[in-house]
Amino acid sequence: MTRAGTGKTYASAFAMRELGFKKVLFLVHREQILKQAQASYKKVLPSDISTGLLSGNYKEIEADYLFSTIQTMSRSNILENFERDRFECIIIDETHKAGAESYHKIINYFKPKLLLGMTASPERTDGFDIYKLFDHNIASEIRLQDALKEDLLCPFHYFGISDLEVDGKTIDDNSDFSFLANEARVDHIIKQAEYYGHDGDRVKGLIFCSRNEEAKELSKEFNKRGYNTVALSGSNTQDEREEAIQRLEMDCGNMSSNAEKTLDYIFTVDIFNEGVDIPEVNQIIMLRPTISAIVFVQQLGRGLRKSDNKEYVVVLDFIGNYNNNFLIPIALSGDRTYNKDTVRKYIREGSRIIPGCSTIHFEEITKKKIFESIDRMTTTKRMLTDKYNQVKYKLGRIPTILDFYKLGEIEPMLFINYAKTYDNFLRMVDKDYKITFSLKEEQILAFISALIIDGKRPHELLMLKMMIEDRIINEDSFKNELEKIGEKYKAVDYNSAKRILNMEFIAGADIKKYSDIELISDEKSAKDMFMRSISFWNKLKHVEFRRELNNLIEYGMLRYKDLYSEHDDNNMVLYQKYSRKDVCRLMNWDKDESSTMYGYRIKHNTCPIFVTYEKKSDISDSTKYEDEFINNQIFSWMTRNGVSLNSRESEDIINYKQTGLKICLFIKKSDGEGTDFYYMGEVEPIKWNETTIRNNKGKKLPIVNFIFRLKHSVRDDIYEYIVNG
Questions:
Q1: What's the CA gap between 34 and 171, in Å, rounded?
Q2: CATH T-level fold of 577-723
Q3: Strand, coil or helix: what is 684?
Q4: Which of 113, 214, 351, 633 has the most other CB atoms within 10 Å of its CB?
C-alpha cells in the first residue's frame, strides 16, 4: 500500500525480476493504464521476456508478461482459454476495487504462486474485506507523510484560497451551476493561478471540478481568455484521453505549431483520480468540495510524480463554505485519528508538520471556514464502524482498543465517547464479537473509561495495575512504581488517586452510575496500606474481563507517555486540553465540583479560571465579560458580576503571593470546541480595578477587572488561533 506517485508499478516490476517469475498477469481497471504499466516493466525486465496487451483493442495473449484490463480478462470466452496455472504471479493494480465480482471471477479461476495487490487507498466503505483476498499479508505500507519524508515524491506547495464571494455569498455545497461557471469566478481562478504560478516554462495543469457541466463551461471560458484547455469525462474515448495527456505534457520548443497543439489545462471531475501517470503536471487546481480524504490525496497525487526538470508542483484549493472542509487537513496530514484538536493543530501549524520541502498555506478566511467545519464535525456510528472495519480487515481479527492506538488509526476515545465503553461499541457493530460481561463488570469498565484511561494522570492506572497483580499498595511501593516511569511522588497526588478509586471523588450523576463499584477493600489493614476488594478479586477471575482491564490500562499509559508525561507541578501540560472535571481531579480537589464551577472557583488554595474567548451573542448581558488577550503574555479578565474589590475572592487573588494561591488559566476559542479548554499555565495579577457591567434590565453591577501576566508567553500558533483563527 503506497501513495500515488511513489512508484508502485516499478516496485512490482523489480520484485518480479528479483523473484525470477517468467509468466505474470498484470491486471488494471482502465486501458489507458495498460500501456504505462507495460512501458515501466520493459525498462526493468530482461530483454528475453516478452510483454503484451489484452484489452478490447489488443489480443497479445502469448506474451510472457500479459497486461490486461479486468473487463476483458473476466469474459468467460477469454478467461477459460487460459490454463489455470498459466501465471506464476497475478498483480492487481488499484486493488481496492477488487471487491467487484469481475475480480473475484479471475482470482478464483487462476492458481498462481503469488497474488500481489497494489493500491494507494485500501480503505473501503462498502463493508468488503479487501485484505482477506491476500490473507491479511501486507508486504509494505507507505503513507503520504512517509513518502515525502523519504523523498519519493515531488514536493508540493499547497495554498488554501477562498473561493469566489458574490453579494456576500461564498460557493457552498448547494451552489447553482450558474454560480460555479460565471465570468467573475473564472477571472478569480485565473488571477490566483497566475499569481501563485508554477514550476517550469509553461503551465501543465489539471483542474478538478464538481460536475462535468462545470468542467466544460470553465474550459470554454478559459479558452476565451487565451488558454488552450479541454474538458474530459467518462464519455471521452481512450484515444481522446491519451491525446489530451500528450498535448498537456508536450513542450513548445521553438515551433509555433507546437504551441497551438499544447494544452495548458485539462478540466475533469474524477477520471484522473487514480491510475493515470502524468509526471509533467506542475499545477493542480481544486474547484470542488472535499468529500473524501482519500479522493483528495488521489487528486493531489496526480502532481506528485517526479519528473526531470520539475522541482515542485503548485496546488491551489479554492475553499468554499463546504460542510466537509475538515477533511482537508486530515488529507494533507495523513491523520487517521479524527481527533478534532489534532486536526485543528494541522491547520495552525501547516508547514511545520509536513515533511521535506513541501509547504502548506491557508488564507485567514479559509482557516476560519475550516475551523468552523471542524467544530461541526460529528462522530457518527457509520464513520466509527467504517474505521473499525478497516482495522479489523487489516488485522484479520477483532481489534483491541490498543490496536487502534498503535496503528495510528482513529482515536480510540471516540469509540468510548460514543458508546461509553469499547466493549459496548463492539457489541453494537460486530456480530463476531461474542464476549459478555456482567452488569457490575460493565460498570467498572465504564468508570475506568470515563475517568481514568485518558492518561492525563498515571496514578490511578498504576494503582489499578497493582491491584490486578495482587500487589501491596502503600506509599513506598507506589513511589517505586512512579519512579520507574519518571514521575515524582507527591502525597497529595497519591491520596487524590486513591479517592478516585474509592468513589469518594465522584459527584452528581456519576454517583448513581458508579457509587456501588467497590475496587478497594474497606477492611482495615496495616498503616497506609490498601488492597483490592474481595468483589473486585472475584471479577478478576473472569479471564476476558481481566484482559479487557489490562488493555484499557495499557492504552491509558500509552496516552500518558505520549501526551501528558511532560507536565508541570499542577499535573497538566501546556496547551493540552482539559475539562473542568479533569482540573478538579488533577489539582487534587476532594470532590468533583465541575458542575458548579462555571467560570472559576477558589478552593484548596487553587483558582482555575475558565474562559470561552468568543461569547455567544444570545447570553445575558451581565455575563458578556470582556475577557481578552492584550498580547501573548498579558490577559485581561473579568470576575463574575456582583464582585467588588472588597469581596473575599478579589482579596484572595490580589494576595496570592502571601497565601500561595495557584491561579491557572484555561481558554477555549468557542463553545463549538466542546467542554475542554486549553491549559495556558499559571498567571499572576499585575493590575486590578473595580468597574461595572449592566444586566438585561440596565442595572449596573460591580465587577473587578484583573490584568494577568502569564508565566509562559502563549505559543504563536495557539495565540493566533484563539485571537484571530
A1: 38
A2: PUA domain-like (2.30.280)
A3: strand
A4: 214
240-245: long-range contacts, CB 8 A cutoff, minimum separation 24: 241/32, 241/271, 242/32, 245/276, 245/278
Distance CA 272, CA 309 (A): 23
Alpha-helix runs per DSSP H in 524-579: 534-539, 543-559
Q: Is the pLDDT of residue 176 over 80?
A: no
Phi, psi of 220 (to 5 degrees): -60, -45
pTM (predicted TM-score)? 0.82
Give the pLDDT score at 397. 94
Domain map (residue ranges) of the chain: 8-139, 147-376, 381-425, 436-564, 577-723
Average pLDDT over residues 480-495: 96
pLDDT, tens only, 234-292: 888 888 988 999 999 988 654 455 556 899 999 999 888 776 778 899 999 999 888 88
On whether the 8-139 domain is CATH 1.10.1040.50, my answer is no
Determine contact, residues 208/303, Cβ cutoff 8 Å. no
The share of the chain scoring above pLDDT 70, in percent, equals 94
Q: What pLDDT, in 10s, does the model give residues 507-555?
A: 999 999 998 999 998 876 556 788 899 999 999 999 999 999 999 999 9
The band of 1, judged by pLDDT with boundaries at 50, 70 and 90, is very low
- Cα–Cα distance between 609 and 199 in angstroms, integer? 51
* CA distances in angstroms from 517 to 440, 448, 514, listed in the order given: 7, 11, 6
Helix (H, G, I), strand (E, B) or coil at 246: helix
pLDDT in tens, 550-581: 999 999 999 999 999 999 999 999 999 999 99
pLDDT digit string, tens, across residues 365-379: 898 889 889 988 888
Q: How far apart are CA 363 and CA 369, in angstroms?
A: 10
Which cell numbers hold the place of 347? 491547520
Contact (Cβ atoms closer than 8 angstroms) between residue 618 and residue 600: no
CA nearest 108: which of 97, 120, 100, 96? 100
Same fold yes or no, 8-139 and 147-376: yes
Q: Which residue has the cell 481479527?
A: 397
Query: Domain 147-376, what fold?
Result: Rossmann fold (3.40.50)
Distances (CA, A) of 84 to 107, 110, 113: 10, 4, 11
Residue 5: per-residue pLDDT:
47
Name the residue type at position 31.
Answer: E
CA distances from 231 to 208, 212, 215, 219, 361 (A): 10, 8, 6, 6, 28
Question: Is the per-residue pLDDT at 465 higher than 90?
Answer: yes
Indicate the DSSP class of residue 318: E
Provide Rg for the chain, Cα atoms: 31
CA–CA gap between residue 408 and residue 390 (Å, rounded): 13
Q: Whole-angstrom Cα distance, residue 610 to residue 683?
A: 13
Comparing CA positions, the residue from 429, 613, 605, 580 lying closest to residue 507 is 580
Scan for cell 479558452, then name that residue. Answer: 223
In this structure, the number of other CB atoms found within 10 A of the CB of residue 577 comes to: 19
Burial (Cβ within 10 Å: 0-12, 13-18, ≥19) of residue 448: buried
CATH class entry, domain 436-564: mainly alpha
- The answer to whether the beta carbons of residues 24 and 32 sit under 8 Å apart is no
Is 624's pLDDT higher than 70?
Answer: no
